[in-house]
Write a structure and sequence with these properties.
This protein has 248 residues and is mainly beta. It has helices at residues 2-32, 85-88, and strands at residues 37-45, 49-50, 53-54, 61-69, 74-82, 95-108, 111-121, 133-142, 145-152, 166-172, 175-177, 180-190, 199-209, 214-222, 239-247. It has 2 domains: 1-32; 37-247, monomeric porin ompg (Porin, Beta Barrel), CATH 2.40.160.40.
């Protein structure tokens, strides 16, 4: 009996030690997980180009956004920009308001994924069909390259009967050193039931980290002349775009 009474405190001590160690490891692992965070951004650009097409009649735009990212890769965000194209189309919306959310993470070492949905709102746009658009997207990345596919579940930016329109985006952003990043992109917009509105766009640019902000300069072009402003300006013509962005 004496041996049993001696072993009981010893067993209890071992269980207590193992439990304490396991709890400590769990807390350490939890502490290693990155906490959720909120970031904000603001930009001034010489021309708001979306998929190669100017949204501001080749004029400057003010832009701002906010993003929340969770430790498990889930994220939501919102972004706004001044625009002109809705008014050019006979509507009444000087602003684009985007709301998006999704999940990103790693598939395998070096391989990443990003899936989600993006809603484009043009408050009081008064176009028929409405300019408001919703897309689902999926992206696979490896290193500094990525391939993204977007699929419209609604009419696309006011085009009639354009549900199921598609956009492919192949991009590469290798670091050049000294705070410079090369920006390469080619995209293909397929507007469902509107072959004349479908086109290819591309971009070659560079971004410089200035410390307090980032400055990018890009050459943008498309192979379409179907997007014209009422004043006769070709909204898809080649041009240089300069953008200053602050993230905080």
């Amino acid at each position: 009996m004496k041996q049993k009474t001696k072993r009981l405190p010893l067993a209890a001590a071992v269980i207590f030690a193992v439990t304490t160690l396991a709890g400590g490891l769990a807390q350490a692992q939890e502490a290693e997980k990155p906490a959720s965070e909120i970031s904000f951004n603001a930009s001034l650009t010489s021309d708001y180009r979306y998929r190669g097409i100017s949204q501001t009649r080749l004029k400057p735009a003010l832009q701002a956004g906010a993003d929340w990212a969770g430790a498990d890769g889930v994220y939501v965000g919102t972004w706004l920009s001044t625009i002109k194209w809705v008014k050019d189309g006979g509507g009444d919306a000087p602003l684009e308001w985007d709301i998006y959310g999704g999940k990103r993470g790693e598939i395998a070492p070096g391989w990443t994924y990003d899936v989600g949905g993006l809603a484009y709102f043009y408050p009081s746009n008064k176009l028929n069909p409405s300019a408001n658009t919703f897309e689902l997207y999926g992206q696979v990345g490896y290193g500094f390259t990525s391939l993204k596919y977007s699929h419209a579940l609604t009419n696309l930016f006011g085009f009639a009967d354009s549900k199921n329109s598609k956009y492919w985006d192949l991009s590469a952003n290798p670091e050049l050193g000294g705070g410079f990043v090369l920006n390469l992109h080619v995209g293909r917009q397929k507007v469902h039931n509107s072959p004349a509105a479908s086109y290819t766009d591309w971009k070659v640019g560079v971004t410089k980290d200035l410390g307090f902000a980032s400055l990018s300069l890009a050459y943008v072009d498309t192979n379409t002349e179907s997007y014209m402003a009422p004043n006769g300006k070709d909204l898809g013509k080649s041009g240089a775009v300069l953008t200053l962005t602050k993230t905080f």
